Amino acid sequence: MYIFQCEDSIDGIFTGVYDAWASHYGHKHIQLSSDNSGNLMLFSEYIPVIPDSDKSRKVSRTMITRLGTDFYETICKCAMADSHCRKLTMDKANAIYQTIVMALALPEGAKVLEYLSEPCISCIFELCRQTANEGHHLLEFLRFYELKSGILFAQIHAKNDVLPILATHFTDRLPLENFIIYDASHQMAAVHTSSKDYLIVDASTLNLDLTKEYSSEEEGFRKLWCTFFDSIAIEARKNPKLQSQNIPKRFWDDTVELK
Predict the structure, then answer these.
(1) DSSP bridge partners of 189
(2) Cα separation of 74 and 96, whole Å?
(3) What CA–CA distance (Å, rounded) separates 218 from 146?
């Protein structure tokens, strides 16, 4: 068995798909793995995969052209999922590879996503739903605040790589604003400049002290909102358990009134 060891990212997995396909070892003898835990299989040859944006774009273009945009977006959402959140029947990267191979072998390949009895499709469905659910949850309560520079800033602690979902939504909703959405869990940020598209950048060196320098108006609005939140609360009807269900505690650090 030939196992292509790839990075756990969209570019890493798509590059793995490209290299595995180009190897001509035969799909039955190939697996992809994004698991870097060090657990190795006996009698297998491990082949390292270096992320390559050109190879990744070629795989993306093939999926969009031959299988459609919906299929491509589903695969991307799966690639963005944290595969450690749940027990899966197979590696995330291998599920993506097997699904693409199966889809390209069929006349109506995009319909392969309906074959939920297939282990790879079941895995794709679970991970895609996981990413979409968290993205939808964060869209409901993500909070921007204004910095002294006038930039709108928001911080999240996401389990899955949902920045593209959030950035796409807010680029459409706030096209004239300069904003940054910082994912502290992955140390990545979506940066949007007025009237332009967003960029996903490495934010591991971001100076978080600068993100706490609010504009004068922001300070006033934060105090006003917290005062409103406290004033409408009814002591006898406080329900911490329900509150934790609606907004899990891991999100509280990013929510002004629950800090």
Answers:
(1) 182, 201
(2) 10
(3) 6
CA separation for the pair 124, 247 (Å, rounded): 26
Q: How far is CA 123 from CA 144, 182, 233, 241, in A?
A: 34, 28, 43, 31
7, 125: one domain: yes
**Structure tokens of 82?**
């944290």
DSSP H stretches of helix in 146-215 = 163-173
Reported for 187-196, long-range contacts at CB under 8 A and 24+ positions apart, including other chains, are 188/161, 188/163, 189/163, 190/163, 190/164, 190/166, 192/167
Q: For the chain, how many structural domains are there in total?
A: 2
Q: Yes or no: say if 115 and 121 are a contact pair by the CB < 8 Å rule.
A: yes
Q: Are residues 113 and 214 in the same domain?
A: no
Q: 183 in helix, strand or coil?
A: strand
Parent domain of 76: 2-133
Residue type, 40: L
Residues 26 and 129 in one domain: yes
pLDDT in tens, 155-209: 999 999 999 999 999 999 999 999 999 999 999 999 999 999 999 999 999 998 8
β-pairing, 198-202 vs 188-192, is antiparallel
- What are the C-alpha distances in Å from 178 to residues 20, 140, 255? 40, 20, 21
Helix axes 53-67, 92-104, angle to 10 degrees: 50
pLDDT in tens, 64-97: 999 999 999 999 999 999 887 666 768 899 999 9
Task: Return the residue matching tokens 């929510």.
Answer: 255
Position 162, amino acid: V
> Helix (H, G, I), strand (E, B), or coil: what is residue 59?
helix
